[in-house]
Amino acid sequence: MLNIIICEDNLELLRTYKVFVKSYLNTHTERQAQLVLATANPNKVAQFLTGNATEPTLYILDIEFANSLTTGITLATKIKHIDTKAKIIFITTHEELLPLIVKNKIVPLAIIEKETGLQQVKNELLVNLDKATTLTTKKIIESDYFVYKIGSKAYKIAKDEIFYFKASTNSHKILIFTAKTVHEFHGNLTAIESANTDFYRVHNSYLVNLKKIKKLDTTNLELILINNQLIPVATRKITGLIKTIKAD
């Protein structure tokens, strides 16, 4: 989910930008984005950043804040220092400060000039909202799939459909089990495990989708999946598996 934050000290403009963003989100419900903060106080943005640096975020900032020693450029510099992947849009009347953006290596998604008029500001803002949300939504959708290759051809399966991966008896091959299909490809469980946190290595030969677990039988060292299939569990994996299931 892409978080969107607006910081503008002119309260009338702040309300207007909120309307623009909310209107966009209401008409693009397929986009993985939400407006989480709209404020005239740059310190509130900094506070939000401290606790949410891992979330993909788009910041819409003025460059000057009348009642604060913090400028949009210093705020953006702090944002980029903590969150290098943050996207920033400046909406400003202070063209004379633009060299500072270059000097501080901020590289904003866009710089929108207020003097062009509110309609033009809206147009440019919506174009850049579209860019930011499209990119984030694409990444989120891609992360929902497991992609593998057979020869030069790539295939993908929704992770929610996968029950487990199993090391094949054929050397260096992996089997993917879904409710109705089995797929085989060249690969190794360790690489798949490191890239897919929703799956747990319960045995040297098995990597199981945590969402497909119905019950853990510690007496017989077996997992019962939601389709009642039994998966062996190594003794040394029991403790970690129990903690993971509880945390999940």
Q: Tell me the CATH superfamily of the largest domain.
A: Response regulator
Task: Report the helical percentage.
Answer: 25-40%
- Structural class by secondary-structure content: alpha/beta
Low-confidence stretches: none
Report, as a whole number of angstroms, the end-to-end distance: 19 Å
Q: Give the CATH architecture of the largest domain.
A: 3-Layer(aba) Sandwich
User: What's the arrangement of strands in the largest beta sheet?
Assistant: 2-1-3-4-5
Query: Proportion of β residues?
Result: 25-35%
Give the number of domains. Answer: 2
Task: Give a written overview of the molecule.
The model has no long low-confidence stretch (mean pLDDT 89). By secondary structure, the protein is of the alpha/beta class. It has a 5-stranded parallel β-sheet with strand order 2-1-3-4-5, with helices on both faces. A 5-stranded antiparallel β-sheet has the order 10-9-8-12-11. The protein has helices spanning 11-27, 42-51, 72-82, 98-103, 118-143, 189-195, 238-247, and strands at 2-7, 33-39, 57-61, 87-92, 110-113, 145-150, 153-158, 162-167, 173-178, 182-186, 199-203, 206-209, 213-217, 222-225, 230-232. The longest helix has 26 residues, at 118-143. Strand 3, helix 3 (72-82) and strand 4 (87-92) form a beta-alpha-beta unit. Helix 1 packs across helix 5 (118-143) and helix 2 (42-51) runs parallel beside helix 3 (72-82). It is 35% helix and 31% strand. 24% of the residues are buried. It has 2 domains: 2-143, Rossmann fold (3-Layer(aba) Sandwich); 152-247, Beta Barrel (OB fold (Dihydrolipoamide Acetyltransferase, E2P)). The two termini are 19 Å apart. It is built from 7 helices and 15 strands.
